[in-house]
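Course assignment 3, question 2. Fill in each field.
Student: A.L.
Task: Predict the tertiary structure for the chain below.
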Amino acid sequence: MNAVEFQGVSKSYSIYDSPGDRLKELLSLNRLKCHKDFWALHDVSFETRRGETFCLIGENGSGKSTLLQMVAGILQPTRGSLTVNGRVSALLELGAGFNPEFTGHDNVYLNGSILGLSTRQIDQRYKDIEDFAEIGDFINQPVKTYSSGMVVRLAFAVAINVDPEILLVDEALAVGDIYFRQRCMRKVHELRARGITILFVSHAIADVKAIGDRALWLEQGRMREIGETDRVVAKYLAAMVEKDSAYLMLRSSPERARTGPRVEAPEVVEHIPNIDHRYGDGRAEVLGIAVLDAQGDPVHLLEPSQRITVRISVRARAGISQPIVGFMMRNHLGIDFSGTNTAREGYDLPAMMPDDVYTVDFHLEMPELYPASFSFSPAIADGTLLGYQMCDWIDNAIALQMGHSPGEIYGFLRLPCRVEVNARLAPKAPELTEHSVG
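Answer field:
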């Protein structure tokens, strides 16, 4: 049995030009239509398996919050049907379900009772809720005196401690400080391990990729893509980059006629080991990528402190006034780990004419990273760091395993460090005054 099932669900809101129109329609017993229908969701069908973390992504206004409110029972579908099997705990709009005049203590009991818990059951959980929220004596103050961060702390503490079978989280963690967000994400991982079904809405793509089993991309209320998280997220990001590029790209002058010979790099990489996803406007293309050692040979295993060269060859198919070449390095979870490009490194590439070929070498020293697989995604764009149009991007073109470090890696990487004990810091130079000048 699935935890959540949507079958052809659509949701419409009535939009009135003025309050008077609503009254007219009401008095006419709906014989006179004075509103416009706004369809927030169109024919949405999916199922969420028990114990699955199902993520919803999309732009603001795409219908994500409406969908979660329907799962929570706050809204009913206009068309279609939905089934929810299990106790639902929801962390939706900031402060939703809290009475601002009540204290935090009273709101804990109010929310618990709404979710079907007895006073005794809430008593048993109250200490855990108070400890997780960490708002101190404010627990006994009215919620209207809380900051937004304190409200979400208490709301999340309640949501995870009422033994939910289905947990809904709608972007509420975005207002929390980094310490609380990390604690919340650890708790989400704990709930996943316990088999709790989670429906998670967030614009933090790194969080989505870290915890999502599957993802649904909504666009203007319609299903654009559904499936494995990395694939859906890659397509969503590609669409957002293209949309942003169209909005921000520089208005370059018409292409000039070629007045000189074609630029051809002396050495060109023409091999792309893997293409998970590729997008861009096609005005330039990545010809190939290679990761080389100090002798120029292909690297098969990354080593800590190893000097490597990431070599990328690109060709222009049209005029590129401000070419930027770079790459993104991702870890085994598909999370963007590090990246750079020519503009970021302060290297302004000359404009490219059609058929020009550049080979760009990025020389770097590998840090001591935890042993895992890392991929390199090459790209070429036209513009600046503040506004560019993506010409060609290749997801995960080459993947390499990081070898084991001589010592243990705590966290993601080891920072270069020098240790001293009982040392004196260098004395500060005396400040010059008008009396000290000879």
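Instructor remarks: Confidence is low (pLDDT under 50) at residues 249-257. The chain has two domains: 4-239, 278-414.
Grade: pending
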